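HUMAN: You are asked to prepare a plain-text protein record giving the amino acid sequence and the backbone structure tokens, both parts labelled.

ASSISTANT:
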Amino acid sequence: MHQFSETELTEAVVRSFEDAPDPRVKFLLQELVKSLHDYVRKTSLSFEEWEYAIDFLTRTGQKCTPIRQEFILLSDVLGVSMLVDAVNHRERGGATETTVLGPFYVGEHKEMPHGADISPDSQSGQKLFVQARVTDVAGKPLAGVPVDVWHADDGGLYDSQKPNYATTGPSARARFVTDLDGRIFFRSVVPCSYPVPIDGPTGELIRQTGRHPMRPAHIHFVVAAPGYEPLVTHLFIGGDKYLDSDVVFGVKDELIAKVEKRSDAVMPDGKPAPSEWNLMTYEFHLKPGKGTPPTPLGIKLGEYA
């Protein structure tokens, strides 16, 4: 009968995956075992700490719903999401920088016409006009490209966080398709910085470690064109006080967009403007390649009833 020592135990578990039929699965599991076992040895993990970790992960899973992904939030806060993003996008070659998808890419992204107001129910937010263009790295415009857009409102909440989401439907969330010049434009409100959800295990981790839960104000974009790598990114609002301390480590200098305060009587599409409004302009550059764009989490509206 074997009497496994600390090192012999690790070697035995690693060997147990030796006949895994998929080489990648074999590699991933063997490296995971080595890292986990090294962590336990280096920290002299106690039974109480092990039990807390099991309970923490159990509660993380229990907090997940069709429109909330607590494991993605935990991955974000630990910097794992950004690290996975970094190792998968090492060479940008002039393409726009990527960042985390986040846990709120959910529900329905209904296609809307250019110039549409994606947050028509917001009465208090500062009005925003967003104009963007999608090109390849050489500047050639890309037409017919779907661009998914979503952001928190001026109160710091995403639509799916609100209790009436199932009945009122999406807000500050839509899909636009680029025109022949690769352009999209829409109206909304200027989003504000906001705390990530802290009513679950991830919030417990944040509180216990003395970190703040804030994300700087931003708008999410997913751009997916055939023949190009899908682009998952944000545009951050310049000047936000949390740009240097984003709780999910997602800020990159290139993605900080200037938002100009304007008082023109008309917006860039020629339609009347309020007395004060804001303009955001940006150009996305896509890298040739392939890949599968992310799919919104959640279920179709109406299935909650």
The chain has two domains: 6-45, 61-286.
